[in-house]
C-alpha cells in the first residue's frame, strides 16, 4: 500500500476542528453560568436590609451627593409688601442646579393690624412663602431664636426627607443672595455642625474668633434642632442678634465646622468701609442694598435679565 501524506493531514485536521468547536461550546457555557451567578449575587445583596449591623453603611450615590436642600429665611416685617414682591422677582428668576432645592421664605412675627390679616393672607394663598412666628415683632429680642428653634416643629412631616433641609439660613431683606454661587460654596462642606457666613469683625478672616454677620448666616439642620432643645439660648435672648447667635454657638461648643465666605459676601461698595468690597463675579451675597439705586446697580452688574426671551409683545432696549 502506498503512503499518502495528504490522508494523514486530513486525519489530523478533522479531530482538531471538533476539538476547537468543543472548547468554544465549553467557554460559552461557563460564561452563561458566571453571568447567572453574578446576577444572583446582585439580587441577593439588594435584599439585604440596609440597617444590618454586619454591613458597612452604603455609600451615597452620585444623585444623593448632588442633592442639596436649603431653606433661606428672610427676616422682614409684615407691612413690607412691596419689598417681598420685589424679592420674589429676584429669587424666582434665578436658576439653580439640578437636584438642588432652595426654598425662600419671608419670616415675621404675629400680625397686629386688620389690613395685615387680609393682605398677608392673600400673599400666603398666592405664594405660600411666608412663616408667621409666634412672637411680638422685634429685631434684637429673640426673633432670630424663635425662627431657628421653630423650624424642627414646622417641618416635621413624616412624608418629607430627613432632614427636611441640609442647611437653614437667616438673611436680611436688604441682602442679595446669588443662589447658584451659594450652592457651589456649600457642596464641599460638611452637612453637620456647620456655621457659615461673613465673619465679624470685618478685617478678620478667622471664623472661630467672633461671629457671622447678620447679613446672612447659615447653619446645618442639626444646629437648628440643638437650638430648639438647648437651654443656652433661652438664657440670653437680647442683644445684637448676630452676635448673640455667635455667643450661643460658642457657649454650646457648636459649629466645629466653620466657613468664612469673605470676600464672596460683603457690603455694597458705597460708602466705602472696612466691610465693603467692589462688586465682582465671585459673589455669594451683597448686603446693605438700602435703596432701589443700589439694587439696580447690583442687578445690572450681574446681568440678571440676560435670559429675557425676545417677543413681539415688548421692546426693551
UniProtKB/TrEMBL annotation:
GO terms for molecular function: hexosyltransferase activity. The chain crosses the membrane at residues 12-29. It is found in: Golgi apparatus membrane. Coiled coil: none annotated. It comes from the Eukaryota. Its cofactor is Mn(2+). Its EC number is 2.4.1.-. Keywords: Glycosyltransferase, Golgi apparatus, Manganese, Membrane, Signal-anchor, Transferase, Transmembrane, Transmembrane helix. Its main location: Golgi. InterPro entries: Glyco_trans_31. Pathway: Protein modification; protein glycosylation. Belongs to the glycosyltransferase 31 family. Pfam families: Galactosyl_T. This is Hexosyltransferase. It comes from Brassica napus. The keyword Transferase applies.
Amino acid at each position: 500500500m502506498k503512503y499518502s501524506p495528504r490522508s494523514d493531514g486530513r486525519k489530523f485536521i478533522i479531530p482538531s476542528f471538533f476539538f476547537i468547536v468543543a472548547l468554544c461550546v465549553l467557554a460559552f457555557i461557563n460564561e452563561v453560568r458566571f453571568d447567572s451567578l453574578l446576577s444572583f449575587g446582585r439580587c441577593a445583596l439588594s435584599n439585604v436590609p440596609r440597617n444590618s449591623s454586619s454591613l458597612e453603611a452604603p455609600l451615597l450615590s452620585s444623585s444623593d451627593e448632588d442633592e442639596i436642600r436649603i431653606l433661606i429665611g428672610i427676616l422682614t416685617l409684615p407691612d413690607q409688601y412691596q419689598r417681598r414682591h420685589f424679592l420674589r422677582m429676584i429669587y424666582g428668576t434665578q436658576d439653580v442646579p439640578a437636584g438642588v432645592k432652595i426654598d425662600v421664605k419671608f419670616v415675621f412675627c404675629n400680625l397686629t393690624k386688620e389690613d395685615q390679616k387680609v393682605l398677608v393672607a392673600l400673599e400666603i394663598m398666592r405664594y405660600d412663602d411666608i412663616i408667621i412666628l409666634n412672637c411680638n415683632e422685634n429685631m434684637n429680642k429673640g426673633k432670630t431664636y424663635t425662627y431657628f428653634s421653630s423650624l424642627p416643629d414646622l417641618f416635621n412631616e413624616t412624608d418629607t426627607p430627613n432632614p427636611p433641609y441640609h442647611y437653614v439660613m437667616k438673611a436680611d431683606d436688604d441682602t442679595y443672595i446669588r443662589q447658584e454661587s451659594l450652592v457651589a460654596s456649600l457642596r464641599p462642606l460638611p452637612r453637620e455642625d456647620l456655621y457659615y457666613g461673613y465673619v465679624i469683625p470685618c478685617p478678620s478672616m478667622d471664623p472661630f474668633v467672633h461671629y457671622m454677620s447678620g447679613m446672612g448666616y447659615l447653619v446645618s439642620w442639626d444646629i437648628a434642632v440643638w437650638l430648639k432643645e438647648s437651654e443656652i439660648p433661652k438664657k440670653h435672648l437680647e442683644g445684637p442678634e448676630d452676635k448673640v447667635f455667635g455667643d450661643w454657638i460658642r457657649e454650646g461648643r457648636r459649629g466645629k465646622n466653620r466657613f468664612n465666605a469673605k470676600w464672596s459676601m460683603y457690603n455694597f461698595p458705597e460708602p466705602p468701609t472696612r466691610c465693603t468690597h467692589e462688586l465682582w463675579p465671585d459673589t455669594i451675597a451683597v448686603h446693605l442694598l438700602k435703596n432701589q439705586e443700589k439694587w439696580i446697580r447690583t442687578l445690572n452688574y450681574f446681568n440678571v435679565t440676560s435670559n429675557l426671551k425676545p417677543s413681539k409683545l415688548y421692546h426693551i432696549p
